[in-house]
Amino acid sequence: MWVTHCQLCQLSQEYNYGPWVESNPRHRAQPPRAARQCPYPSRCWSHGYAGRPRRVSSLLPFFDLQAGVRFDPEPDTRGHLVVGVQGLAPYMFHVDGALFLSDRGDLTARLEGEYDQRITQRLIVQPRLEVELAAQDIPESGIGAGITKIEAGLRLRYEIQREFAPYVGIEYEAALGETADIARAAGEDPDGLKVLVGLRAWF
């Protein structure tokens, strides 16, 4: 089942095998070249252990194992196998990590962390940080080896229901290292601010 949205959507069935869909299009006036390699819709199968006493291998409770595929139609058609973990770390930090292996042998990774701070029962402010990495240069995508991009931002959402919450936010995005050098050589700005407006929905 797919959910149409403005900025971010995550659909999951906790505690059971089921569909997990994520889309996160990026919008900014002049994004760095690497920033355009945003996660396109991917379909994964997740098994949740949140709230259960059992473990999988050395994984802690409150984490999901995820595996699936990702397809990037631009700038050149590329498919990826995806393996990741998502869950709740100590002190209520939400963390998400994923490895992407493309059909051309390129290995990349994404790490995300966020924290929900309640202002009221329905109004929540969420600082978040995202880091992207690459194991090798990917010239076709304007990506250099190492830490390729960092995003730091703040989102404010209003939970009409816990499963349905519109939000606004602001994020600073910057290409780093060789990726920033590639962007500058192409005449592009390697960093910038963006304003977000979207809807978070799950069930």
Shape: globular
> How many E-type strands?
12
Mean pLDDT: 77
Radius of gyration: 17 Å
Strand content: over 45%
Count of runs of 4 or more consecutive helical residues? 1
Give the class-level CATH name: Mainly Beta
* Total number of domains: 1
Main sheet makeup: 12 strands, antiparallel
Provide the low-confidence segments as ranges: 1-58
CATH-derived architecture: Beta Barrel
How do the SSEs run, as a string of H and E? EEEEEEEEEEEHE
Fraction of residues in helices?
A: under 10%
Instruction: Determine the structural class based on helices, strands and strand pairing.
Output: mainly beta
Distance between the termini: 11 Å
CATH topology: Porin
SSE order and pairing:
Blueprint: E1 9-11, E2 18-23, E3 42-48, E4 63-72, E5 78-89, E6 93-102, E7 107-115, E8 117-118, E9 123-134, E10 146-158, E11 164-175, H1 177-185, E12 191-201
Features:
Porin, twelve-stranded antiparallel β-sheet, disordered N terminus, 203 residues, mainly beta, 1 helix
